[in-house]
């Protein structure tokens, strides 16, 4: 059966903002994190300690984590791509981190400039250093689950950019292998990222079957983007398969600057609305969450990517 409680991992302040071209002031990021935490979200990914040349928007990671690190009602993990990022994160006061490995060679190269194997070796160093300091590590296993199935010429376009040109479609076993490697090196939770949001229940289910044979289901999370409007369906089938941790982003913000065509994450408001409808507890105050979404959308000068938020603002 589906879980009674779902833990939401809010990624708006990191995944949501990393793709924004206009610099968001540090103070706005900090207020967003405060608002998300006070809406009851228990895990709020705060920022990334990646190269500022690669992701200029998050160049203020030290200041962001520095001013929220003492919020004790939520966990505030930060993304790190290597030991250098790990050391900077710890020095700035981060108490939890996340590493991110791709199941596609091409995407690994374009996102973190190394092979899958090299990335896993780097992350072994990171998890080793983190274990010494008792710092929990979350691992992302990134995939493009499949090619989009409808528009054939676009299909080829996407597959060249994100699917591996050598391997084509990323088979579920590759995602399972990366997830297992992350689990074996000590990651306490593995988030399965459909980075460009092309998965459907038809591809998500076999991927989850493969991953669940390699990593215990309690350790798994799902991370969907809504590029093709499939994210809530994908979440629902994941819940039915026993997953109880879901990543989402306030107002549906997000996208990866190194994954062309990636659009926003599934909106946290929409996830909470669906979970409430299913009678699943989240501990999130939807009213406060909607206000946090309004706050950041007003700042970005753009309508919310959450259908629930748009609908609520009309009633
Ligand atoms: P590189 O150019 O190969 O790095 O980048 P390098 O080791 O050759 O170093 C180059 C320069 O970067 C040096 O500085 C380093 O010191 C510096 P310079 O000597 O030129 O002045 N550097 C760093 N600076 C700050 N923090 C660091 C760091 N490391 C090196 N940690 C690197 C390799 C991994 C650094 C780069 O490719 C990078 O930062 N990539 C991050 C890309 C990124 O953030 N992508 C988005 C996150 S993943 C995602 O969004 C998907 C997810 O949401 C799930 C989903 O949606 O499915 C998680
Ligand atoms: Mg993402």
From TrEMBL:
Record flagged with keyword Lyase: yes
Residue ranges constituting the Pyruvate carboxyltransferase domain according to the UniProt record: 6-290
Record-given protein name: hydroxymethylglutaryl-CoA lyase
Alphabetic keyword roster: Lyase, Metal-binding
Residue stretches spanning the membrane: none
Tagged with keyword Nucleus: no
One Gene Ontology CC term in the entry: mitochondrion
Organism for this UniProt entry: Artemisia annua (Sweet wormwood)
Reactions catalysed: (3S)-3-hydroxy-3-methylglutaryl-CoA = acetoacetate + acetyl-CoA
Residues of the full protein shown: 118 to 432 of 438
Enzyme class: lyase
Catalytic activity, EC: 4.1.3.4
């Amino acid at each position: 059966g589906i879980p009674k409680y779902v833990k939401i991992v809010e990624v708006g302040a990191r995944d949501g903002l990393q793709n924004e071209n206009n610099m968001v002031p540090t103070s706005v990021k900090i207020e967003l994190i405060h608002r998300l935490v006070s809406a009851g979200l228990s895990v709020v990914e705060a920022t990334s300690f990646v190269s500022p040349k690669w992701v200029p928007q998050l160049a203020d990671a030290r200041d962001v984590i520095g001013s929220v690190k003492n919020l004790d009602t939520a966990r505030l993990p930060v993304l790190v791509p290597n030991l250098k990022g790990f050391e900077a994160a710890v020095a700035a006061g981060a108490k939890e981190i996340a590493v991110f490995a791709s199941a596609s060679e091409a995407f690994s190269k374009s996102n973190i400039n190394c092979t899958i194997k090299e990335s896993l070796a780097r992350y072994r160093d990171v998890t080793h250093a983190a274990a010494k300091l008792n710092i929990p590590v979350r691992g992302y296993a990134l995939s493009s689950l499949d090619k989009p199935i409808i528009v054939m010429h676009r299909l080829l376009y996407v597959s060249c950019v994100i699917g591996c040109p050598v391997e084509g479609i990323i088979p579920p076993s590759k995602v399972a292998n990366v997830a297992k490697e992350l689990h074996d090196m000590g990651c306490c939770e593995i988030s399965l990222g459909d980075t460009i949001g092309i998965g459907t229940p038809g591809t998500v289910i076999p991927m989850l079957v493969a991953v669940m044979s390699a990593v215990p289901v309690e350790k798994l999370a799902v991370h969907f983007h809504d590029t093709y409007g499939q994210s809530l369906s994908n979440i629902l089938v994941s819940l039915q398969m026993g997953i109880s941790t879901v990543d989402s982003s306030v107002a549906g913000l997000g996208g990866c600057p190194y994954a062309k065509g990636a659009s926003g994450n599934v909106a946290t408001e929409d996830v909470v609305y669906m979970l409430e409808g299913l009678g699943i507890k989240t501990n999130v105050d939807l009213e406060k969450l909607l206000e946090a979404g309004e706050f950041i959308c007003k700042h970005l000068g753009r309508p919310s990517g959450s259908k629930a938020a748009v609908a609520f603002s009309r009633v």
